[in-house]
Structure formats: C-alpha cells, structure tokens
Amino acid sequence: MTTARSTVLVTGGAGYIGSHLCVELLQAGFQVIVVDNLCNARYKSLDAVERITQKPLTFVEADIRDESALTRIFRTNDIDAVIHFAGLKAVGESTEQPALYYDNNINGTLKLIEAMQQSACRTLVFSSSATVYRSPPELPLTEDSPTGPSNPYGRSKLMIEEILRDLSAADPDWRISALRYFNPVGAHPSGEIGEDPAGPPNNLMPFISQVAVGRRTKLHIFGNDYDTHDGTGVRDYIHVVDLARGHLKALDYLAEHCGMTVHNLGTGNGYSVLDAVRAFEAASGVTIPYEVVERRPGDTAASYADVGRARDELGWCAEYDLEAMCADAWRWQSRHPEGFGVGGEDE
Ligand code: NAD
Ligand code: UDP
Questions:
Q1: N or C: which end of the chain has fewer CB within 10 A?
Q2: Domain definitions of the chain by residue range
Q3: Is the CB of 65 inside a 6 Å radius of any atom of ligand 1?
C-alpha cells in the first residue's frame, strides 16, 4: 500500500519524464530511489531535482538488466512501489536496431519483474505509449481502440503491456498501471530541468526549442497535405508536469485496486505543427524559420486521446495549456541552451 511517506523506486528517473516525476514525488513526501544507467541522461538532472525540492533522493547508477544490482536495491530498501521509465524510445533507431530495443525494454522489464517477485513489492506503474495504437487511428483514441504498433519501439511497449497483463492474471496481488502517454512536452516551471535530447531531436517541440535558441537554423515541417485543419500533423501535446502528476494519481488508484489498468494520459486536444510553431513564437518572442518538406515515413495525420477514463478513474486531468507548455519549454531552453551538457562531463 503506497502512502505519501512510502518509498518509490523510479527506473530511468534521471531522464526527461522521470526527473519531473521525482520532483512531484519528493514534493508529495515520498522517499525516492532512482536507478538509471545514464545511457540517455545525465546525473545533473537529479542534482537539479534536489535543488528544486530541497530534498535528497538516492541514486543508483545501474542497468536494470543487471540482476545483482536490482536484487541489491530491493534487499537493502523497503520499496513500496516501482515507477518504470527505463527504456529506449527512439522510433527510427528501433527500426535499425530492433534487438537492442527488445533486449533493453522487454528483457529489462522482465529482470525488474523478477526482482520485484523476490521482494514483497507488487505495485508497478509502467510508461506505455500512444504508439501502441493502430494507425490510422479512430479518433479520439480510447483505451479500447485497436492496437497495432508499426515499429519495434511501439511493439516493445505493447508486448510489455501483455506481459504485465499475464502477470496480474496469474497473481492477483499485483497492482499494475500502464499509462499510455501522448506527446509529453514542456519543462518544469523552475526552468531547471527539461528535455535534453542527445543529437538532433526527433520530436517536434525540442526541435522548435533548439531553432529558437539558435542551435538549429530552421524547422523542417514533415508535410502540409494531411487531412487536418491546416494540412500539418496533429498531436495531443501534454505538459510533462501534468504527465508526472498522473503517476501520483495512478499510485493512489493502485492503493485501492488490485489487477491491471490502462489509462491514456493526454489533454484530449489536437494541435497541428503550425499551431505549435505559432504558440512557441508567442511564448518566446522568437520567429521560427521553417520549410515544408516531404512527409516523414510512418507518420499519421492526427492522434489525440479520449481522456475520460483517466478523469473518471484516476481523478486526473491535464491543467496546463499549449501556451504554458511552450513558455516552460522556452524558459528551460533559453536558460540552458546546451541542456545539461554545458561544462562537459558530469560533476
Ligand atoms: P528518457 O530517455 O529521457 O528517459 C529514459 C531513462 O531511462 C534515461 O534516463 C535512460 O538513461 C534510462 N535507461 C534506459 N535504459 C535503461 C536501462 N536498461 N537501465 C537503466 N536505465 C535505463 O525518456 P523519457 O522521455 O523520459 O521517457 C521515459 C519513458 O516514457 C520511456 O520508457 C519512454 O519509452 C516512455 N514514453 C516517452 C514518451 C516521450 O515522448 N518522451 C512518449 C511515450 C512513452
Ligand atoms: N514534426 C515535424 N518536424 C520535426 C518533428 C516532427 O514536422 O522536426 C511533426 C511530425 O510529422 C508530427 C508532429 O510534428 O506531425 C509531432 O511529431 P513528434 O515526432 O514530436 O511526435 P510523434 O509523431 O511521435 O507523435
């Protein structure tokens, strides 16, 4: 049973969403242990989490596929719940290196489950994704919409959901929440943590931010001939702080419910690429040069969530609008033009 003084293990907690969750957990009074191999994050993010909250957390640098490291974490701590972010997430890379993605994401999750089974901890919140849905989607996407991911990354997420469903069917003590994120963007309003992609960003918002701050010359808009209100792709962008708070609501829910649940976390609103460009320009005061190029292979015209189940069951709704998402993303990017990378190596 998790309460506000419980200990939560956050896998992948040094990353973009994980670091924002750590802030919310610490501020709510939880004890936080992060396990992260830093393959796509820097320890500086957790330093910043401690600065924002003025509270300490415990960090273990380890790969979740390292059985002995995980066993040690569960033996030496009384862990009440696990929030599982650790995974690789680049769609294009997953197509080029599927085995790497299946090993890291699925095998990593299996090792985590094994370590949890050896302990008394049976409460797990899993980072799933709207990429599990079939394309083209029926809109808005409900949790019962047909699944059918089109790439190895999405398939790894769906396979993990299925593994977790089997687990909860076999042992009714499990309490599992799979949260299907739509498009997390923005940054903590302090401007101290935010998204810091390695290399050229694959996603729209970090790309726009890097154009605004002068790291890239222009945005390429992938197609303006979609059947959407202005021809550019429509997505359900959600502020990362809202998303993080959804996890706390999921923990509350699991404290009262056994079994496995699936919830969409989005706002329910669809914005186009041009809407996002204009909102970012208004928030930053910077003009974003862009060029319309070919559609990106595999892209869908529009995707947005039906958020009714999260509202009704978790009592959760997104609060921040697109303007706040852009203002917070810009505060982070303009204060940290090179992300966490300034100064080279981690201290
Ligand atoms: P991120 O890359 O910033 O965070 C993932 C973290 O996991 C990183 O800190 C990385 O170092 C760590 N990690 C990866 N493999 C690991 C392993 N084997 N052992 C230990 N640590 C490991 O990504 P994010 O945007 O914060 O995403 C968090 C989770 O949410 C991921 O599982 C991702 O698939 C999922 N998700 C993200 C989005 C998105 O758009 N950001 C959308 C849907 C779902
Ligand atoms: N997009 C774009 N240029 C970019 C990155 C993305 O035009 O450099 C578009 C993309 O085609 C989609 C939307 O922005 O319509 C959101 O893309 P993102 O990769 O952020 O999210 P996803 O498509 O994975 O939901």
A1: C
A2: 7-335
A3: yes
Q: What is the per-residue DSSP string for 188-250?
A: -TTSSS----SSS-SSHHHHHHHHHTTSSS-EEEE-S-SSSSSSS-EE-EEEHHHHHHHHHHH
Q: What per-residue confidence (pLDDT) applies to 341?
A: 86
Homologous superfamily (CATH) of 7-335 is NAD(P)-binding Rossmann-like Domain (3.40.50.720)
- 290 flagged as catalytic: no
For a pLDDT cut of 90, what percent of the chain falls above it? Answer: 95
pTM above 0.70, yes or no: yes
CA of 18 to the centre of ligand 2 (A): 22
Q: What share of the chain is helix, strand, coil (3-state, %, to 5)?
A: 40, 20, 40
What are the tens digits of pLDDT across the range 307-322?
A: 999 999 999 999 999 9
Which of 148, 152, 36 minimizes the C-alpha distance to 99? 152
